Amino acid sequence: MILAVTGGKGGVGKSTVALNVAAELDAVVVDADLGMADLPERRGPDLHDVLAERADPVEAVDESGVVDILPCGRTLVGAKAAEPTALVGAVEAVERQYGRVVVDCPAGMSADAGLPLLVANRCLLVTRADEFALPDAIRARALARVLDAGIERLVLNMAGESPPVERVRSVFDTPVVTVPRSDAISRAQRSGRPVTAVEADGRASAQFERLAAVLLPD
Amino acid sequence: MPTISWTQRRENGVTLVEAVIQSTTPTGPTAVTLESRLSGPVWPPRSEGVPVAGWDGTRYETTVEGESRVAVGFASPAEPSEPPIELVESAPATGMEDEESTDTDAADVLRALGDPTPPRGAVPASLPEESLPTATGEAENTDDGR
Questions:
Q1: How many domains does chain A have?
Q2: pTM for the full model?
């Protein structure tokens, strides 16, 4: 299974959702934000090296943390040397070895946001319930549709007390899962860990479990 | 067999070739393959930096619908020669090929959405190729100031 986590706008929590869902699914998370990576760095080869044919995608997967991760480099030189289209083969190679892959997409509508949706069969659309994020999520949804990545759920992230679930559901015509704004999530993300490693019985953990159950029936 | 007509001209050291392929069958699409006869590399038209679909080296594949025509153009640093382009293959297009052409691939995504890699001008030019981070992380030990 290859699941893309997309959303259009930056800062809505795509990387947080990708890391936490990957933890629930026991999947490898691929940081596909070639220009501005968000997921933790690890030692050793990264996605820039893989896309420049300097490293094997499977060997670049780091298993030293709570979640297996194919990290992305941080340098402009590395981003320049990377061949974006090679992402497709790299993600497929990781899927063959590990079975489940979650791809954290960059913001925007450029090819680096499109290519993960091309290789993925399914995706999660992450947004916040605000006037800036929602229009971008609509554009990201259009891109996911064109590239045939089935939208499994809309994740309404950093949700407050009474998130507009019904309205968002009717606009997007997609089932909605909310993830509450949570200190535990922020603390966990800062240390590159899923929230279950920090607060296993909290509401945020429960919502990521729900998402995983949707993605893996039985 | 469809017919081909062409023009070519030389501008600023570049030969520009234009061709029109006219179908001669009343119905049904015809798959055609064209090949440059210039003695130099072909510079195909590009969309967002990626050659448009159909080009493979000096050959271009396309489909002409019945009783209609398609145009193709390319550039080359080679001197003009006659003919600059020829029709090398033509066959009734089958449904299989139609299906294939509607499949999106990674190059299509790049063509439609644009290459996301940073522009050359944004990348520090002083870093030699060897100092790129390598699979073994050796770059961390180079003295390039990072």
A1: 1
A2: 0.74
For residue A87, what is the nearest residue in chain B, using CA coordinates? B106
Q: What is the CATH number of the domain that holds A63?
A: 3.40.50.300
Q: Give the span between the Cα atoms of B44 and B36, in whole angstroms.
A: 11
Q: Give me the percent of chain B exceeding a pLDDT of 90.
A: 32
Q: Flag if B133 and A73 touch (Cβ within 8 Å).
A: yes
What domain range is A119 assigned to? 2-215
Rounded percentage of chain A residues whose pLDDT exceeds 90? 74
Two tokens, residue A40: 């933790």
- Measured between CB atoms, which of A34, A59, A114 is closest to B109? A114
Looking at every residue in chain B, the average pLDDT score rounds to 80
When pLDDT is cut at 50, 70 and 90, the band that residue B95 belongs to is low
Our CA-based measurement puts residue A198 at a distance from the nearest CA of chain B, in whole angstroms, of 31
